[in-house]
Write a structure and sequence with these properties.
With about 130 residues, the chain is mainly α. The protein is built from 4 helices and 2 strands, in the order ααβαβα.
Length: about 130
Amino acid sequence: MGELATSLAHELNQPLTAIRSNAQAAKHLLAADPSDLQEVGDTIKDIIQDDRRASEVIQWLRALVKKEELAFAPLDLTSVIREVVELVHSDAILYGVRILVEFNSGLAPVRGDKGNSSRSWSICCSTLSTP
């Protein structure tokens, strides 16, 4: 149960931290003279995406508590990786890291649970960034 609590805290903390970081960045961008409204808009889009990810974690937790079965379906690995890159984008900016990803065209889909796949990639990326 302790491992589950630790994992849950980590999974919720990532999008919530990104929301806070992006909100602070938007505030800073709006205070600049002149304000870069395009960048502010992009930052607000990031906040909305991070909010969606936090909601997905909560939905996953509800399903886990209710002992619902995983929803296995064909997954596009390119899409999963793009979602993870979006998830770590705010942290990358904070640490001055530029993320470049190249995809091979025509990757075959794999079967898996979309939520668990994204969370697994997210955990791997956050582990790699831990000093």
